[in-house]
Amino acid sequence: MRDSQHTIVRPRTVALAGNPNSGKTTVFNALTGLRHKVGNYPGVTVEKKVGKIQYEGNHALLLLDLPGTYSLNANSPDERIATDILLGRADHTERPDLVVCVVDAANLERNLYLVSQILDQGIPTIIALNMMDIAESQGARIDSNALARQLGIPVIPMIASRGQGIQELRVALRQPHVPLQARSWHMPEPVEREWEELAGLLQKYHRLNASTAHHEALALLTTAATSQEDRQRIAPEVLEHLAKDWQKLEFLGYNRQTVAIDARYHWIRSITRGVSKRTFAAGLTTSDRIDSVVTHHVWGIFIFLAVMALMFQTIFSWAETPMNWIGHGFDWIAFQARAALPPGDMRDLLLNGALAGVASVTMFLPQILLLFFFLGFLEDTGYMARAALIMDRFMSRFGLHGKSFIPLLSSFACAIPGIMATRTIENQRDRLATMLVAPLISCSARLPVYSLLIAATIPSIAVLHIVSLPALVMFSMYFLGLVAALSIATLFKKTLLRGAPPVFYMELPPYKLPGIKSILVQMGERALLFVRNAGTIILGASILLWFFASYPRLEGAAPSEQLQHSLAGRLGRAIEPVIRPLGFDWKIGIGLVSSVFQREMFVSTMGTIYNIQSEDNAATMSLKEQMQRDIDPQTGRALFSPLTGVSLMIFYVLSMQCISTVAVMRRETNGWKWPIFQIAYMTAMAYIATFAVHRVGVFLGIGV
Amino acid sequence: MTLLEVPAGARVRIHQVKARPEVSLRLRELGLCEEAVISCVSKNRGNVICGIRNTRIGLDHRLARSIHVSVAE
Hints:
The structure holds two protein chains of two kinds.
Chain A: H1 2-6, E1 13-18, H2 24-32, E2 36-40, E3 47-55, E4 59-65, H3 77-87, E5 98-104, H4 108-120, E6 125-130, H5 132-137, E7 140-142, H6 144-151, E8 155-157, H7 166-174, H8 189-206, H9 210-222, H10 228-233, H11 236-251, H12 256-273, E9 276-278, H13 286-294, H14 299-317, H15 320-340, H16 345-362, H17 365-381, H18 383-396, H19 402-410, H20 415-421, H21 428-437, H22 446-457, E10 462-463, E11 467-468, H23 469-494, E12 505-507, H24 516-550, H25 559-565, H26 567-579, H27 586-594, H28 601-613, H29 623-629, H30 642-654, H31 659-669, H32 673-700
Parallel strand pairs in A: 1-4, 1-5, 5-6, 6-8
Antiparallel strand pairs in A: 2-3, 3-4, 7-9, 10-11
Helix pairs in contact in A: 4-12, 8-9, 8-11, 14-17, 15-16, 16-24, 16-28, 17-24, 18-19, 19-20, 20-31, 21-23, 22-23, 22-29, 22-30, 23-30, 24-28, 26-27, 27-28, 30-32, 31-32
Chain B: E1 11-17, H1 21-29, E2 37-44, E3 47-52, E4 55-59, H2 61-65, E5 67-71
Antiparallel strand pairs in B: 1-2, 1-5, 2-3, 3-4
C-alpha cells in the first residue's frame, strides 16, 4: 500500500462533472484555491480549466473542470467535450481516473440523471451533494448516508459556498479505492437484449471501447431517426441490424424515444424515495414570487430596460473619475520622465511611443472592469437567464433566439467572450448567425475611439435643450451597431443560414445573492488580461508605430514633413486613394491600419502621430485640441470636421478590425471560411455606409 | 390541450412531447417527459415558466405548443 503511493508516475486526474448551476465552479475554486490554469481544448474555444489539489508531503491531484452538462447525450460543443472525456474518446485529454459529480441537492432527481449516465461509464465516482442548505430551506431533508448506501458510492454532503464539506471531499479524493458499481438501472428485457447486441456489433466493426460502444448503441437505439452523418459513419452491417431492432421494439409496443429515460428516472425515484424526506410541501418559492414580477409581460420589460439603462449609465458615469486618475497618473510619469531623461531619440521613444500608447489604452480599464462586474453580477444572481427569456420573443423576430441575447450583451464588452458565449446555443445555424453579427455590437475597444472623436469633432451643444449632442452621438453609435447586428442576422437567417425557426428552452436557476468574491476574481482575471495586452501587444505596437512614424529621419525638417517622409506616412499615403472617398486622409489611414491590432490603437496612434507632428507646445496641448487644429491641405478646412468624425465612427461601428476576433472565429468555426466571409461582408458594409454618409453630408453641406 | 393554453398556477400531466427529436430528447431528460406532473409557474407573452419539482424551465411559445397535457387531479 505504502509502496504504491511512492510509485505513482503521473498524478491522478480527477474530473469534476455536474449540471449547470450545480455550484461546480464554486467547488472547483474551493478545492484548488487559485492554483488553476485556464486554456482551451484544441480546435474549439471551450474553456479548459485544470487545477491542482495540493496535499501535504508534496502530493497533488490534477482536477479537470468539465463543462456543465445535463446529459451525456451532448447537443452543444460544450457538452460534447464533457461527454468525450468521460467516454475516453477525446484525443486531447486522457480519461480521468476518478469523477466527482457535483449534485444539486435541491434538484436531486434531475441531477441523478447525469450521475446514472456517468456510473454507466465504469469510472469510479464520488458525489459531492451540494446546496444542502437550499434543499432544506425548500422542505427536503436528504439523508446522504442512505444515498451513499443506495448508490454504493461515496456521497459527501456540502455547502460549497460556505466551504462546508470541502475538507471531507479532499480527504475522500485521496482514498486509494473508490468502489465501482455495476449498472443498476434496467430497461425491459427485450430492449436490454437488443442494446447488448448492438453494442457488440459496434465494438466489432468500429473497434470502440466498451463504454463508448454502449453509449452509442443506446443513442442509436433510442433516436427517432439516424442523422445523415450517422448513416455515412456507421458500418452497413450495424445499420441493418439497427433497422431490425427498431421494427422489433415497435412491434413489441415500446416507445423507443422514452424507454431509456423512463428507466433511468424509475431507478432514480426508487433511490430517492428512501433518501429524501419532505418536511413541508414546497409551494411557490421566493424565486417564483420574484419571477411573477420580473418575468411579467409588462413589468418584466420595464425592469429589463431599467437594468440595461442603469448598467450603461453606470459604466459611463462612474468610470469617469478613476479614468481621470489614471490619466493624471500617466501625465505625472511623463512629466517626471521628461525631466529626468536627456532629450533625444531614447526619450522620444519612451515618452511619445511607449508611454503615450499604453496610457491612452489603459485609461479605459475602469469601464471594462465595470462592464465585466455587471455581466458577472447579472449571471450570478440568476437574472441573466430571465433576461434571455424576456428577450426571446423580441430576438425571434430577427431569426435569433433568447440565448443569442447573452452573447450579444457580452459583445458590448468584447466580441471574444461574446462569440465564446454562443457555445450554449445548440443549433449550429443559430449559433453561426449570432457569431457572425456579434462583432457589430460596439465593444469596449471602440469606446475610446468614439470618446476621442466625439470630443474632437462634435460641438458640445444641447439638442432641444435636453440631451447633449455628444451624448446623443455616442448613443446613436451604439444603437447603429445593434440595429446593424439584428438586421444582418435577419438577412443571414433568411438566406445563408436558413433553417427551422429556433426553439428556446433554458433552466432558470433560483435567484440568489451574488457571490461578490467570485465576481471579483473573474473581474481580476479580465483586468489582468487587459493590462497584459496593454503591456505587450499595445506596448509593442506603439513602439513599432513610433519607429515607423519617426524613420527614416529627415534632418532639419518640420515635424509634419518628417511624418510624411516616414514609413508610416508612406503607408498612410499608399492607402489614401482608397479612403479619400470617405473623407479620410493619410493620417487617419495610419490609424485605421494600426487598428487592425486592436481598435483602441486608433487613439494611441493619433497620440503618437500628433505628438510627433506638433511643434514645441505638444506637451501643453491635448490630443483633442491638436486634432481640432489640423487643417486638411486638400480642402483647406479642418480635417476633423463633425462630418469626418461621424463618418469615421460609422466606419468603426461596422468594420471588422480586430485580429483577436478573427482568430477566435477561426478556432470556433474550425476553418477560415467564416472569418474571411465575416471580414469581407463587414468591411464592404462599413465602406459603403461611410461613403454614403460622407457624400450625403458633403452634398447637403452638413457638418463639413 | 397544449402547455400554451394552461393558465398560470395550474398543475398538468404531460401526455406527449412533440418537438424536434433532439429537443424532445433533452426536454425529457430535463424531466419534461411523458406522464410527469408539472406546474405552470408563470407566463410571459406566450413564453412559459414551468416547474418540475424544484427546477424551473423557461420555454418559448413554440415549445409550449408542442407539449400536450391534461389537467392533473
